[in-house]
Every structure is written in structure tokens, then in C-alpha cells.
Write a structure and sequence with these properties.
Belongs to the pecanex family. With 1408 residues, the chain is of the alpha+beta class. Helix content is 56%, strand content 9%. The two termini are 66 Å apart.
Length: 1408
């Protein structure tokens, strides 16, 4: 615990104050010294220049030039060294300097040492290495060098000889020792261009001389540098050690790097095994055994000029510990530019005299921290709550530049005497107020109030777009920039029209046409922008498919080749296409109507009457639509009534089997919502625009721009989400007409300002509700001892808590409970999306891969396997969520709301991110099927009913009919969540599982499975289109000659057994062709008779031979996969699961099958899977094993209606996402020490969910608290108090839904957009999207009906009319229905159950 606190203080607190510098004991002295002196230089340079030189341009130029040159030098050297390590040449040399020094000190001999003594020591070195086991490198060894060394040296530099050297060293004969002595001291790695390509034995004398000369030269150089060897020898080479450290060095020597460039520390087991076999040679003397072993140094050749280079003794890991790596030239240029900008802006403020006395030093410390973060950044110093990405290094410097620029601009503006606006709302803008931000730079980074610069950019642009332009939430940086740019473009066009219309005054009897055109464009732009998503990906893909179809076709061909084409992108493009076509018609009509209404001066002539009627209408419709109906549909209306007042048809159904029925109150809700969005609020805003425009035409000021902004924001937000507009309108009228009438500017601006204030007030209420519910003393859920300790300290913290609540509401930042306790602290601002990571799903597998990808193993828990169900649930929500929200089935919703969908085994958190006009962008987070104890307690809390509670305080007097008791009503009010619906239907899969061990425990059942296996092989063989080719293939026939003989016996006792093989002959101890024909010939003949072109199928036919050979191959593959222990149940299940996955181990006898792999892939592999289904049906339909016709029909039906494959097969994911009715698989589960095989069966049906709405500020606060606790405070306790169950806040479920590794969700979906046009029920109310094709179809139908009526009135026979006009109508419009009916009639002839009929009907539904 103490070391963790010290590490947090050092790497978290101190590094945040200094910009990333701290003393790291895991690093060597060289790196720590460089970091210290570098930081002191960056701190003292601006301070000394400011104190020594006058505040002139010369001082500014000196400082900026010095910093720029310094950064250029460091970045160029760092980049060049990394390129050297990537592409340079490595030379490994053996150093004998330490050995020579040890000999000189021991014997005081001359420099000319005896060659025999040196060679004897060289002989002993590889022997000592080879005879000792190679220890695995520890994490400390992998992360950093020895801190006690004077300069860095990786253990990889002290590696044993390579494989080629070991072969030379290995003594093969009596003369091998002499050869080894000659070759030991040669350079190990020679990748020099001018080196010799080959060496022969005739050059051994010259090589020996060269080796001796190099050794003597190195000894002389080391003796000259002996005095400085203790500190910084060889640019990172550690000083030599005494004999007491020999054992440690020997262990380090054995770590053989796999790559010299990367200095990997992984050792090769194969090399170690070979090296251990070296025979032990006798030691020469006791003195040699105590001498220093020669070390190997890895040099890199740095080319300075053509033909000239220098050797660099350094490594990549040590360099990365010294300085951060910039991967390309662009990053280096950005870093140098940011360094120049920081130095320029910082020194400009110093020259202007903005800082005095101690604050000069403090500001120089801020400058130094910004500069240091561009060189060596620790992720805690930039933001300790978010992790690391490429933009971390620029965040602190970017914030510094932003604030310094604001200070400088404000300083220059305040100097101007005639500044148009010097105060806003009575608050004067003073430059010194902005200086406080720079003073608090270290502290703000310490407590994590600044996000990464990309997150801050998304947050800032999103807030501007939402509050000033009526936009929706941003999903990424590209999305934020795209949204703000299109809003500014629309605003610039509208401002031009508005300014032109208001240049000249106009009277009440005449509205300028330009102003009417402005109003029409305002409605058109607002409507179109509200219908578009903030993410331009789908729109760009649609444009790309229309403008560059060849490129799109090539991409589709690649997807078809991989057979993993996702249908979702095409569906999204079709929905976007329908929206654009509909907007073309609607915007044209809206422009004409708006132009006509505003030009008629109806708002001016009927001025007081029209506004009063519109206000009353908006309040009445809003109250009924957004308050009364949602309350009556809740599970507990007003938290007093025990059941919904407006019930759906599914409310009393136990297991609904059809789609949700459209109720009358849902039709009413949709009608009122459309009337409110498209009639009431546009009329109110147009009326206010007309009245304000008339007033503005007589006075010229900047209100024209504000009016344009207000009109765009109010219209656009009313189209997107008018849920709270009636309350905002009511507060606007009351406040500015009764409370503060003098503060009113105009109704439009008042409404605009109040919409922002009211939005913040709702956030404040949600935060206060979360705090009060979380810290309520009567429902305390202490998760640890710290929670009990912190509870009383939350009382004096209340005043600060209220201030934090107000500030976090203004800046839209989460308020997080510290370590899950009752003490709250503010976090950094985030966008509505909250999480910075981008989640994707790998289409090559059927599993969820987040930003931390989890590898799939053959035997694992079922969490990753079950993630496909959440993915299918996401696709179901993609079809229906937007329509269900428009129907009011989830209650009132706004951007950022969080819901939990709870069913029997599926529990998912749905985060609504963007709500537009006819679209919703959301993200689903699936929780574990079998969650922890805390999760189960919270699931019980949201599923248990309170209707039976009769308590009131301490007694139980009961409750009124259809009402809740006092205790139940009180407890429901002190929850951060609320049940919105109990019977919400979605398409999903129900899971049934059977234990395979139970079904195969008896030998007779295994024999039955083998029988089905062989019969399935024969079936797929007979139905293969390649069967004639296989029967005529000479290579196959030649390989199967032995199988044509009747006396051929397969006697492998590890494969064939009388216990599991029905055709086993006990007296012959094997399987013969005759026994095979006795059992399976009838089935072969029946399958052959069903072929379109029957082939010969008598006992001596090639078909029987091939069937017999494949049956032997299939059983032998099963035996091989079972490790030749098929009699054991565990081995049998293991082998069958291996074949089920498609992993076939072919024996030598069966290699003839490689003549055509379709024999395995199209015959044997599907037979394994089909046999499992047939074996499962044996327990329910025994007659299928009696008659060949029934078995044949069953296999045929299962081929078309059932998907059988392993869950790791991409076909499994494709089948699930294609909504196949029934699927079957075999799953190997290893969980808590249990090893089980389960047969999983999936049935598609309607699943019933409970919809629970959670306080979104509760979710954001708990998520932010987990980031702070796990990343900054480094709490790795899996049973920490912050994830313990808390029923009032669903703390465990919310925290477990965090992105990995903070949480442990089973599945996190990508951001998914749902469109209203894909909802099946909603289109029946309004008739679908309005487009030119829909209008033409409607007119054609009406025209045909008119023609039919004319024929009827003229006395024409009605039968002729029906045959003529009616027939043509049916042909033109009902052709898909006729095709569907024909396919249904064909299928019903062979269908076996109503379930299969329902499957085929749904399968052909796309034709409708």
C-alpha cells in the first residue's frame, strides 16, 4: 500500500505539476539526470532572460530562437536514432577489457598475456552458459534496465552466441577444440557492406591475427578510459562487476534476443536445447573461473557521409525511456511548432508585464512544463483519467496557447477606447481574470479538469452547435467539425437574406419578399439539418456509391470473396436515400407555404390574437403529449398508482409471439407530436420573427445576427426534440412578462436565452437528485470501510458540493463520487458520447472486439460467445428504436439518456447519444449473462414488484385499490432509476442448452451418433454436384483399390470398436466392406434413387467404394482427434468437437482425400454437424431412425431451415445477423474448473424486456469515478467498494458497463443509427416517407379508382373491369406478393410443422 501511494504521488501528483518530469527509480542514472537537467534548462532559460534583459523584441527573438533550435536538434537526433534502429546495421563485438584488467590486477603481469590463458577463459564462457537453465525475464527486466548502472545497457546486449556460432563452437572431433579456440573472438554479427561474403578454412591464420589485434586494441582503449568507466562509459555501458556478480551475469548472458534491432529479450527454446548438449570441458585453472566473462556490445552504424560512419552503443528501449518517439516527420514538425508557439506567447505575456514578483517564476514553471511535455510526457501529467494516445503530448501546450492567446487578445481589445462591447450582462471583461487560469495550470492538470485536446475540441464544438445552432450530439472529432461547419454555412446564408431584408424599414401592411424568402429558407434549412445525422459517414458512402460506383463495386466484390458482407451499411444507405428524397419534396412544399404565410401579413395584422392562441395551443398540446400521456403509460404513474393506466395489449400476455400492437393512445401521441413539431412551434417562431423583423427594420444594430441565430436554433431544436419546449415557453412568458419585464429584449431572443438556461436547470435537478439519492442515510450501501469513514465527512463537504454542482452544470462535466463514497468531486468536461475510444466489431469473427481486443481460445467461458446475442439485439434496436421513441414506448427521451433493458438473461445498457428528427444514434453495452453477486442483487431490485407491499412506516395497514402503499411510494421516489415499461418487445434469440456428456454417456448413444455420422456422409456425397467427377477420377480410383476388395479389413483398435461401430465384425476384429454394405447399402441406394441423374449403386459400384472409404476416413479422423481414445467419453467429446469446428487431422492412409478438398469441406464436415442434430432429435422423434424416407426428409429440411456450425465460424455470425429462425452449435465451456460440452439451440422469437430509465447524471458520474479510481489512483482491487451493489443507483451494473479495461461488458456496440423509416408499425400511421415515387403511386391508384368508377357508371360489366383495370393494378403493384404466395405454397407442401412455416414466411418477407 505504501509503495502504491508513493508511486501515485510521484507519477501522478508531481508529474502533473512539472509537466511529466519525475524521478523514476526503475530508470538508470543517465536518463534521470538528463530529465532533471533538461527540465531545469527549460525553466531557467525564460526566467533568466526575463530578469537579465529588458522586455524588448530582441529578448523575445533570442528565447524563441534558442527554444526552436534546441527542439529541432533533439527531434532530429531522436528521429534519426529511431530510423537507425529500424533500418540500421548492428555489429556485435565481444569485449575482453574487463578480463584483461582483472588479470593485470591479480598477477601484475605484462600487457602481453599468454594466449593459452585467454583462450581457456574463452572456452569456458559458452560452456557455463549452455549448462545452466535459462531463466525467464521478469517484468522489471522487460521494462527498464538496472537502476544501479551508471548508464543504460539492455540485457539483450549480453546475449550468447548465435546458432551459427554455436555450431562452430560445438566440438565434433578432437580437432574441434582448436577450431573453437580460433573462432570464438570473431565479431558475431557482420552486416557491413564491404565485409567478405564467405570465409574458408585456409584463412584461419589471418583471422586469428586480426582477432588478436582487435582484442589488444580494445584492451588499450579500455585502459585509457578506465578512470571514467565508473560513470558514463560507452554511452550506456555499465561498469564492470566483480566476481561476486558472475552468477547474475551468466543468467543475463543466456537471454538470447530474437532481433538485434528491437533488442527483444525472448529466448529460443530450440537453441537452448541444442546448446545444452555441449560436452563439459575441463577448466584450465581456478583463476580463470573467477575472472570476468567477456561481454558482447551491440553497436549500430550511423552513417554521417558516404563511406563514413560511427558506431553507436545504444538501444531502442533506453532511447524511448529518455525521449518520446515521434513516428513521422509531421509529428516532429508539429512538436517544434508548438514549442515555438509556447515560447512566443509565454514570453510576450512576460514582456507585457502581466506577471509580477513570484508569479513570474510560477509562469516560467508553467512554460517549462509545457515544453517538457513535448519531449517526454507521462500520461498522468496531461490527463490522468483518459489514458494515452497520439495527442497526449500536445494537450498541455495546446491549452497554454489557447489561454495565452485569449489573454493577449483581451489585453489588446481592452486598450481600445471605443470597444463596442466592454461588458456582458453587467460583467466587465478584465484581462486579469483570465490570468488566473494560467496560474492554476499545474493544479488543473493535477485534478484532471482538462481533457485531452481532441476530447475538448469535440466537447466545445458540440456545446456550441447544440446551444447556439440547435444541433445534435457529436460522435467524433470529424463529426463535430462537420456539424459546426454546416451550421455556420447555413447561418451565413440566412444572415445574408435577413440583413438584406431589414436594410430598409417596412410597414405592417407589406412584408418584403426578401424577408419571406428568408423565413422560407430558415424553415427549410432547419428541417433538413434536423433530419441529418452529425456523422457524415453514411452520407459520404451514399455519395461515393453514386459518383464512384466502380470503386464501390470492387469493394463489394472483396466482401463477397470473404463471404462476410455486412447488410447494415446497405440498409443505412437506403434509409439515408429515402430521407434525402423525402426532404426534396417536403422542403419544397414547406418553402412555398412559409413564403405564402409570411407574405400575407397574418402575423402582423392579427398580432395579439394569433400569439395568444399559439401560446395556449403549445402549452396544451405539450402538456398532454409530454406529461400526461407518458405518466399514464409508466409502470407506476406518478409513483402512486400500482399499474399503468394506458396498457398495451401485451401487458397481460405471458409470452408475446407477434409484434407489438399499435394502440389508440400511440396514434394520438404521434399525431399530437407531429402537430406540435411541424405546425405549432414553426408558427410561433415565424410569428416572432415577423414581429421582431418589423421592429428591427427601424433600428440598426447587431440584433439581426442574434435573431438569425435564435430562429435557426429554436426551429431546429423543435424539429428534433420538442419534449421540454412547452415548459421553456411557459417559463419565458412568466419570467419576461411578469418577473423581469424590463430585461426583455424580444420574444425570440428571450425564448433563445431561456432554452439554454432551462436546459442547464434540468441538468442541475438531475445532479441534485443523484446526489441526494446516493447519500441518503436511510439507504446507505457501504461497499468498503472507507465509505463508512467518508460518510460523516460529507456533511461539512456540503457547501463545496453545492458549488461544484453549479460549476459542473454550467460546464457540463460529471460529478463523480470519490472511490464510490459520499464525497463528490468534479471531473473534466466530456461530450455526450462520453467515451473517447471507438468500438468496432471484427467481421472476420463472430465476436466483439473493443479497443482492447480479447482473443478467442478453443475452450473459454461463454461471455465472448454470447456477445453475438447482444449484437443481434443491437440490429433489432436499429430497426425499431427510433419508431418506438416516436410512439412514446420509452417515455420522454433526450440526448444522453441511459436505459437498461432487462430480460431473463439479457441485461443491456442503452446510451442515447444523438436524437434528431426521424433518427436516433445509440450505443448498446451488454452485461454478463451470469453476472457477479452484486449484479444479481441489482437485477433482482429492478425485476421485483412493489405492488404487494402493504407497509406504512412500521405497520402494515394495506393500501387503496390500484394504489401503492406509503412505503413503496416513498422508496420509489428515492431511486435513481424508474421502470418505464414492462413488456417491451424486441426480436431476439432464446437459448436452450443440453449437456452433451449426458446425451452420449451410454455406448449405444455414441454408436447411434456414429451411425448418423456415416449416413450423413453418404447423403452429402450423393447430393454433391461433383460426385460424377469423383467417380471418374483415376487418381481417386487408384488410391481406393484396396477398398474395392471384399476381404479388406480395417483393424485399427484405436479407431474401430464393437461398442460404437454398428458395422464392426467381432470375429474379424475390424470393419469390412461386406459389413459396411450390410448396414448402409440400403441407405446408399435410397439416396442414389433421389438423385437427378442416378448412378450405379450395387455392391461393387464405385459409389459404394467411395462411401466406404469416406466412412473409414471420417471415423479415423474422429479417432485421431480423440487422441486414439474414443472409448473415453471425455476424449470422444473432445474429438467430436474438434471435427465440429472443422479441424481434421488426416492420417497417411487417407491422404487420397487431398485430391479434392471438397470431399472434406462439402461432405465430411457438414455430416459431422448434421449428425449432432439427428442425434438430438432421436430423443423426441424416434421414427426418423426407422425409415429411410423420414430420415432423408429430415436431413433435407434441416439443410434449408437450420444453420449448424461452430460459433467461431463466420457463417454463425452471418446467420444470426440474417435472422435465421433456428441455429445449432456445440460449445466447449471451461468455467470455474468445469469442463463441459453443451449443445446450444437458438430459436428466434420476440423477447420481452423491462425498460428502466436511469438518471443520466448518475451514469456519467459513476463512469467518471471509475476512470479516476482505476487510472489515476491505480486501485486494482477486483472487490473495490465502488463496484459493490447499490440498489438505489444500480452502481454495479453501471460501472460494469464501462469501456474495457475499466469495466467488463460482454459487448459494446459501435455507434448505431436508427431511422424512423425502418419501423414496420410507424409507417402504417403516416403512410411512410413522402417522396416523388410515393406521390406518383398515390395518384396512379386514385386515377385507376376513378377510371373504374367511370366504367361502372357507364354500364360496363364489372367482371370485365376487374379483369382489366384491377388485373393491371395487381400486376403492377402486387407482383412481389404473388411471388411470396407461390413460394409459400411450394414450401407448405414439404413443411413439417407450423414453426417451419413461420420461418419460411419470415425468410421471404423481404419480397414484400
Amino acid at each position: 500500500m505504501g509503495s502504491q501511494v508513493v508511486q501515485t504521488l510521484r507519477q501522478g501528483v508531481w508529474a502533473s505539476l512539472t509537466g511529466g518530469w519525475y524521478h523514476d527509480p526503475d530508470q538508470n542514472k543517465f536518463n534521470n539526470s538528463c530529465h532533471l537537467y533538461l527540465w531545469i534548462f527549460l525553466l531557467m532559460l525564460p526566467l533568466s532572460l526575463h530578469l537579465a534583459l529588458p522586455p524588448t523584441t530582441m529578448a523575445l527573438s533570442i528565447y524563441c530562437s534558442a527554444i526552436t533550435a534546441f527542439f529541432i536538434l533533439i527531434k532530429v537526433a531522436n528521429y534519426r536514432l529511431h530510423v537507425l534502429f529500424d533500418e540500421g546495421e548492428a555489429v556485435i563485438r565481444s569485449s575482453l577489457s574487463d578480463l584483461s584488467k582483472a588479470q593485470d590486477k591479480k598477477s601484475n603481469a605484462s600487457d602481453a598475456c599468454s594466449a593459452g590463458q585467454v583462450l581457456s577463459t574463452a572456452e569456458q564462457r559458452p560452456l557455463a552458459v549452455g549448462l545452466q537453465p535459462s531463466p525467464e525475464p521478469s517484468p522489471d527486466d522487460l521494462s527498464s534496465p538496472n537502476p544501479d548502472q551508471a548508464a543504460p545497457l539492455l540485457q539483450a546486449q549480453q546475449r550468447p552466441p548465435s546458432q551459427a556460432e554455436r555450431e562452430e563452437v560445438r566440438p565434433a572431433s578432437s580437432s574441434g577444440t582448436a577450431n573453437m579456440e580460433e573462432d570464438i573472438f570473431e565479431p558475431t554479427v557482420k552486416r557491413i557492406e564491404d565485409s567478405e561474403s564467405s570465409h574458408t578454412r585456409s584463412d584461419q591464420t589471418e583471422k586469428q591475427k586480426s582477432s588478436d589485434n582487435d582484442s589488444e586494441k580494445e584492451q588499450r582503449e579500455d585502459e585509457e578510459k578506465e578512470a571514467s568507466d565508473q560513470d558514463t562509459a560507452d554511452e550506456g555501458l555499465p561498469p564492470s562487476k566483480g566476481s561476486g556478480d558472475e552468477s547474475e551475469e551468466e543468467n543475463q548472458v543466456q537471454k538470447d534476443p530474437s532481433d538485434a534491432n528491437n533488442n527483444s529479450l525472448q529466448s529460443s527454446q530450440h537453441d537452448d536445447d541444442e546448446f545444452v548438449d555441449i560436452p563439459e570441458l575441463p577448466l584450465q585453472s581456478s583463476e580463470a573461473s573467477t575472472q570476468e566473462k567477456p561481454k558482447q556490445k551491440i553497436y549500430y552504424k550511423l552513417r554521417l557521409f558516404p563511406g563514413k560512419w560511427i558506431n553507436i552503443l545504444y538501444d531502442r528501449l533506453t532511447l524511448m525511456a529518455l525521449l518520446d518517439r515521434n513516428h513521422d516527420v509531421r509529428e516532429n514538425l508539429v512538436a517544434v511548432f508548438m514549442a515555438f508557439l509556447v515560447s512566443f506567447l509565454g514570453f510576450v505575456l512576460l514582456n507585457h508585464g502581466c506577471f509580477k514578483d513570484f508569479w513570474v517564476f510560477q509562469f516560467c514553471l508553467v512554460i517549462a512544463s509545457c515544453h517538457y511535455s513535448l519531449l517526454k510526457v507521462h500520461h498522468h501529467c496531461v490527463n490522468h483519467l483518459q489514458g494515452h494516445n497520439q495527442l497526449v503530448a500536445y494537450s498541455r501546450a495546446a491549452y497554454f496557447c489557447i489561454f495565452c492567446t485569449l489573454i493577449w487578445v483581451l489585453e489588446q481589445l481592452l486598450i481600445i477606447k471605443d470597444l463596442p462591447i466592454s461588458n456582458m450582462y453587467g460583467v466587465t471583461i478584465v484581462c486579469h481574470d483570465a490570468l488566473s487560469f494560467t496560474y492554476c495550470f499545474p493544479v488543473t492538470f493535477l485534478v484532471g479538469l482538462f481533457p485531452q485536446i481532441n476530447t475538448f475540441t469535440i466537447y466545445l464544438l458540440e456545446q456550441i452547435d447544440m446551444h447556439f445552432f440547435g444541433g445534435t450530439a457529436a460522435t467524433s472529432l470529424v463529426s463535430a467539425v462537420y456539424s459546426i461547419l454546416r451550421s455556420l454555412l447555413a447561418l451565413s446564408l440566412l444572415y445574408g437574406f435577413c440583413f438584406g431584408a431589414l436594410k430598409e424599414p417596412w410597414d405592417e401592411q407589406h412584408t418584403p419578399a426578401l424577408f419571406s424568402g428568408f423565413c422560407g429558407l430558415l424553415v427549410v434549412f432547419s428541417y433538413h439539418l434536423s433530419r441529418q445525422s452529425s456523422d457524415p459517414t453514411v452520407l459520404m458512402s451514399l455519395i461515393k456509391s453514386k459518383l464512384m460506383p466502380t470503386l464501390v463495386d470492387s469493394e463489394e466484390e472483396e466482401e463477397e470473396d470473404t463471404d462476410i458482407k455486412d447488410p447494415l451499411p446497405e440498409k443505412l444507405q437506403n434509409s439515408m436515400k429515402d430521407i434525402l428524397l423525402s426532404d426534396l419534396v417536403v422542403c419544397s412544399v414547406a418553402y412555398i407555404l412559409t413564403f405564402a404565410i409570411t407574405a400575407s401579413t397574418v402575423f402582423l395584422s392579427l398580432k395579439p390574437f394569433v400569439t395568444i392562441v399559439l401560446y395556449a395551443l403549445a402549452g396544451t398540446v405539450g402538456f398532454v403529449t409530454h406529461y400526461l400521456i407518458p405518466q399514464l403509460r409508466k409502470h407506476h404513474p406518478w409513483l402512486w398508482i400500482s399499474h399503468p393506466v394506458l396498457k398495451t395489449k401485451e401487458y397481460y400476455q405471458f409470452e408475446p409471439r407477434e409484434d407489438a400492437v399499435l394502440m389508440w393512445f400511440e396514434r394520438l401521441y404521434v399525431g399530437l407530436l407531429c402537430f406540435e413539431k411541424y405546425v405549432v412551434y414553426p408558427a410561433i417562431i415565424l410569428s416572432a420573427l415577423t414581429n421582431d423583423g418589423f421592429a428591427l427594420s427601424h433600428r440598426k444594430n447587431c440584433d439581426v445576427f442574434l435573431t438569425t441565430v435564435a430562429g435557426l436554433k429554436l426551429l431546429r431544436s423543435s424539429f428534433c426534440d420538442p419534449s421540454f419546449h412547452f415548459l421553456t415557453l411557459l417559463f419565458t412568458l412568466v419570467f419576461f412578462h411578469f418577473d423581469c419585464p424590463r430585461a426583455s429584449e424580444s420574444f425570440l431572443l428571450d425564448f433563445f436565452i431561456m432554452s439554454i438556461i432551462f436546459h442547464k436547470m434540468r441538468e442541475l435537478l438531475l445532479k441534485l437528485h443523484f446526489i441526494l439519492v446516493y447519500i441518503a442515510p436511510w439507504q446507505i450501501a457501504w461497499g468498503s470501510a472507507f465509505h463508512a469513514f467518508a460518510q460523516p465527512f460529507a456533511v461539512p463537504h456540503s457547501a463545496m458540493l453545492l458549488l461544484q454542482t453549479l460549476l459542473t452544470t454550467v460546464f457540463y462535466t460529471p460529478l463523480a463520487p470519490f472511490l464510490g463514497s459520499a464525497i463528490f468531486i468534479s471531473s473534466y468536461p466530456r461530450p455526450i458520447k462520453f467515451w473517447e475510444q471507438k468500438t468496432v466489431v471484427d467481421l472476420s469473427f463472430g465476436y466483439f472486439y473493443s479497443f482492447t481486443s480479447t482473443s478467442m481460445s478453443p475452450g473459454c467461458d461463454d461471455n465472448n460467445l454470447n456477445s453475438i446475442f447482444y449484437e443481434y439485439l443491437t440490429r433489432s434496436l436499429q430497426h425499431s428504436l427510433c419508431g418506438d421513441l416516436l410512439l412514446g414506448r420509452w417515455g420522454n427521451c433526450s440526448a444522453g439518456d441511459c436505459f437498461i433493458l432487462a430480460s431473463d438473461y439479457l441485461n443491456a445498457l442503452v446510451h442515447l447519444i444523438e436524437i434528431g428528427n426521424g433518427l436516433v444514434t445509440f450505443q448498446l453495452r451488454g452485461l454478463e449473462f451470469r453476472g457477479t453477486y452484486c449484479q444479481q442483487r441489482e437485477v433482482e431490485a429492478i425485476t421485483e414488484g412493489v405492488e404487494e407491499d402493504d407497509a406504512c412506516c412500521c405497520c402494515e395497514p394495506g393500501h387503496l385499490p390500484h394504489m401503492l402503499s406509503c412505503n413503496a411510494a416513498f422508496n420509489l421516489r428515492w431511486l435513481a432509476w424508474e421502470v418505464m415499461a414492462t413488456k417491451y418487445l424486441l426480436e431476439g434469440y432464446s437459448i436452450s442448452e443440453n449437456n452433451a456428456a449426458t446425451m452420449l454417456q451410454v455406448y449405444d448413444l455414441r454408436k447411434l451418433l456414429i451411425t448418423y455420422y456415416l449416413k450423413s456422409i453418404i447423403y452429402y456425397l450423393a447430393h454433391s454436384p461433383k460426385l460424377p467427377t469423383w467417380l471418374k477420377d483415376e487418381s481417386i480410383q487408384e488410391a481406393l483399390q484396396s477398398y474395392t476388395k471384399w476381404h479388406h479389413i480395417e483393424r485399427d483398435p484405436q479407431v474401430f470398436s464393437v461398442k460404437i461401430d454398428e458395422d464392426y465384425v467381432h470375429c474379424l476384429q475390424g470393419v469390412t466392406r461386406a459389413s459396411f454394405c450390410n448396414v448402409y447399402l440400403e441407405w446408399i441406394q435410397y439416396c442414389s434413387g433421389k438423385m437427378e441423374n442416378p448412378v450405379d449403386c450395387d455392391e461393387d459400384s464405385p459409389l459404394v467404394t467411395l462411401s466406404y472409404a469416406l466412412s473409414v476416413l471420417g471415423r479415423r479422423s474422429l479417432g485421431t482427434a480423440s487422441h486414439n481414445m474414443s472409448n473415453s467419453l471425455e476424449s470422444f467429446l473432445y474429438g467430436f468437437n474438434t471435427l465440429f469446428k472443422g479441424d481434421f487431422r488426416i492420417a497417411t492412409k487417407d491422404e487420397w482425400v487431398f485430391a479434392d478438398l471438397d470431399l472434406l469441406q462439402k461432405v465430411v464436415a457438414p455430416a459431422v454437424r448434421m449428425s449432432l442434430k439427428l442425434h438430438q432429435d432421436h430423443f423426441t422423434c424416434l421414427e426418423e431412425t426407422e425409415e429411410a424416407s423420414i430420415l432423408y426428409e429430415a436431413i433435407t429440411n434441416y439443410r434449408s431451415s437450420l444453420v449448424i456450425c461452430h460459433e467461431s465460424d463466420p457463417a454463425w455470425r452471418k446467420a444470426v445477423l440474417s435472422s435465421r429462425d433456428t441455429l445449432l452449435t456445440l460449445r466447449h465451456m471451461i468455467d470455474d474448473g468445469t469442463d463441459e460440452y453443451k449443445i446450444i439451440m437458438l430459436y428466434k422469437r420476440h423477447l420481452s424486456f423491462k425498460v428502466i430509465k436511469i438518471n443520466k447524471e448518475c451514469v456519467r458520474g459513476l463512469w467518471a469515478g471509475q476512470q479516476q479510481e482505476l487510472v489515476f489512483l491505480r486501485n486494482r482491487n477486483p472487490e473495490r467498494g465502488s463496484i459493490q451493489n447499490s440498489k438505489q443507483a444500480l452502481r454495479n451494473m453501471v460501472n460494469s458497463s464501462c469501456d474495457q479495461p475499466l469495466g467488463y461488458p460482454m459487448y459494446v456496440s459501435p455507434l448505431t443509427t436508427s431511422f424512423a423509416g425502418t419501423h414496420r408499425t410507424l409507417s402504417s400511421i403516416g403512410g411512410g416517407a413522402l417522396s416523388l415515387d410515393a406521390i406518383r403511386t398515390w395518384f396512379c391508384s386514385k386515377w385507376l379508382r376513378l377510371v373504374m368508377c367511370m366504367y361502372c357508371n357507364s354500364g360496363v360489366n364489372m367482371e370485365d373491369v376487374d379483369c382489366g383495370a384491377g388485373g393491371s393494378l395487381s400486376v403492377s403493384h402486387n407482383r412481389p406478393s404473388s411471388v411470396t404466395s407461390n413460394s409459400l405454397s411450394l414450401y407448405q407442401n414439404r413443411a413439417r410443422s407450423s414453426h417451419s412455416r413461420r420461418h419460411h414466411n419470415s425468410g421471404t418477407s423481404p419480397h414484400n
